[in-house]
Amino acid sequence: MNAAFPHLSSFAAKAGDMLGPKGWTTLADDLEPWLTDWRGRYTGKALGLASPASTQEVAAFVKLCAEYDVPIVPQGGNSGMAGGATPDESGASVLLSMRRMNAIRSLDAGAGQAVCEAGVILQTFHEAAEEADLRFPLTLGGKGSATIGGLISTNAGGTQVLRHGTMRAQVLGIEAVLADGSIFNALTVLKKDNRGFDLKQLLIGSEGTLGIVTAATLRLLPAPRARATAWVGLGALPDARTLLRRIDRALGETLEGFEIIPDHCLDSVLAHLPDARSPLQNRHAWNALIECVAVEGDDAALRDGLEEALAQAVQDGLIEDGVIAANERQAEDFWTLRDSISAAERALGPAMQHDISVPVEKMPEFILEASPAIESEFKGSRAVAFGHLGDGNVHFHVLAPSGAVPGQWEESEGKKVSARVYDLVTRWGGSISAEHGIGQMKVGDLHRLSDPVALGIMASVKDALDPKGLLNPGKLLAK
Which CATH class is domain 6-97? Predict the structure, then answer.
C-alpha cells in the first residue's frame, strides 16, 4: 500500500476480500509490467491491480472505488499508442485489468454475431470465427495482444477500414459498468430501436472515461473464398491515389486494403527482420500493398481481375512494377512487411508517432507538403508516412536526429514536433487522432485545436456519467 494514502488500507483489504488473490494484488512485481505504456513513454504508479473475473465483480469493485473515491484506470492488452491505459505518478489510482474476462460467451453462425468479453484477444476471436467459417472484419498489427475491450474503447481501425469501417461499425451491442457500479446492458441486437440516444455509440471511443466495457455483441461476416494480394512500386505518391480509385472501380467491393509504404519504411523493416525480402527486384520511392477478397468465386478469378487492372496501370505509366502473391504464404509475407513497420521504426531510435487523418483526396498533397516542412523546421529529423491511404489515415512518424537521447528528445524537441504536425493536420481539415485515441499524450493538443462547443458537450457528458471524475482521469478530457 502506498504510504501516501494510509486511509486506503481499508479499501485494499475490502478489495482483497472481494476479488480474492487472483483478482487483487498490491505486490510491486505484479504491478510493474502494467505501469508503463507499450511505447515506453509513460510510467505511473498504482495502489493495486484488480483483475475481476465477471461483470458482477467489475460492478462491485467499481462501487467500492466510488465509496472510497479511488480513481480507476481500465486496461486491456496495454498495447495502446497514446498512454490511455497508464496511471499517473501520484499512486492514487488502481489499475483495472480485463484480462481474466476472456470468454466468448456465444457465437451464432447463422446470425453472424458473437458475444465477447472485454479481455478476449483479437487474434483469439479471429480464430474462433474461422472455426465457424466466418471472420471478424477488423485486424491490425497488434492483434496478438489487443483486446476487444481496448479496441472498443479506442474505436480502433486497422487495415480493413476501407471496406468495413472502424470498430464502431462492428459493435452491435454493448455491456458496460458505469461510474457508480451500475451495469448498462445493451447486448441484445435490434435492427430498429428509437428509444432515445444510442448509448452504446457514446461508450465506443470514450477511452474508459464514461464506463468500463465488459462485453460486446460483434458482427461476423462470411469467410472469404478468394483472395488476391499485390505489392506494387510507384514513382510518386499521387499515383497511389489514382491507382486506388482505379482498383476500386475495377474490382468493386472486393477491395479491402490499400496501404502505402515509403522506401524508407521498407528499408527499416528489411534491416529489422533478417529473413525478410523485398517483394520487388528494384527499389521504388513508394510502395502500395493491395488486398482484395471475395466471398464467392476462387483465387484465380480474383487474381485475374487484379492482374488486368495492374497491367493497365503499368501500360499507362501509373506504376513502375508489381507482383501478385502466388499463394497465401507470400500474401502473409507481404503483410508481415507492412505490420512490422512500427517495430522497425522504433528500433531506429527516438521518434514522435502521429496517428492522423485528412480527407482521402488530400492525403498525398498533405504528406508531400508536411514532410519537408517538418524536416526543414526541425533540422536532422526525418518524416515518414505510411498506412491506410484508402481511408485517409496514415501514421506520420518523425524520427529524431542522429545522436538524440531517448526520453530527453521526446520531452523537449519532440513535443514541439508533434504540436507542429497537429497544426498542419488541423489546417488541412483533418483529425489529430484517427484510430488510437487521445489518451494522455494528445490531451493538450485536443483542447488547443478542437471546437470548444464540441469539447463543452463532451465535458457535460463526462460530468453527468462520472461526476466524481474517477474513470480514467487525465485521459481524453483531462479530468
Answer: alpha beta
Three cell numbers written together for 25: 494484488
Q: Give the cell for residue 424.
A: 498542419
For 463-468, which contacts have Cβ atoms below 8 Å and span 24 or more sequence positions? 465/178, 465/179, 465/210, 465/211, 466/178, 466/179, 466/209, 466/210, 467/179, 468/66, 468/69, 468/179
CATH topology of domain 349-436: Alpha-Beta Plaits (3.30.70)
What residue segments make up the domains of the chain, in order of their start?
Answer: 6-97, 104-222, 226-341, 349-436
| 6-97 shares its CATH topology with 104-222 | no
256, with CB counted inside 10 A (0-12, 13-18, 19+), is buried
The C-alpha atoms of residue 469 and residue 463 are separated, in whole angstroms, by 7
In terms of C-beta distances under 8 Å and separation of at least 24 residues, what long-range contacts does 279-282 make, across chains too?
279/231, 279/323, 279/333, 279/334, 279/337, 280/231, 280/233, 280/321, 280/322, 280/323, 281/321, 282/233, 282/320, 282/321
CATH topology of domain 104-222: 3.30.465
The angle subtended at Cα 204 by Cα 201 and Cα 206, nearest 5°, is: 115
Angle at 279 between CA 275 and CA 284, to 5 degrees: 120
**Sequential DSSP letters for 316-334:** TTS-SEEEE-SSHHHHHHH
Separation of alpha carbons 401 and 409, rounded Å: 9
* Plot region of 442 (φ>0 → left; ψ -120 to 50 → alpha; else → beta): alpha
Please check whether residue 199 is in contact with residue 279, taking contact to mean a CB–CB distance below 8 angstroms.
no
Dihedral of alpha carbons 207, 212, 214, 219, sign: negative
Arithmetic mean of pLDDT, 439-461:
92
Amino acid at site 452: P
Closest by alpha carbon to 461, among 207, 152, 158? 207
pLDDT for 1 equals 46
Beta strands in 14-118 (DSSP E): 24-25, 49-50, 72-75, 94-97, 104-108, 113-117
Tell me what the mean pLDDT of segment 77-86 comes to: 86
Q: What does the DSSP assignment read for 29-46?
A: HHHGGGSB-TTS--B---
Highest mean pLDDT pick, 206-210, 247-251, 349-353: 206-210
| Topology of domain 226-341, CATH | Alpha-Beta Plaits (3.30.70)
The pTM of this model reads 0.88
Q: Which of 3-17, 171-185, 445-459 has the highest mean pLDDT?
A: 171-185
Q: List pLDDT tens digits, range 41-72.
A: 889 999 999 999 999 999 999 999 999 999 99
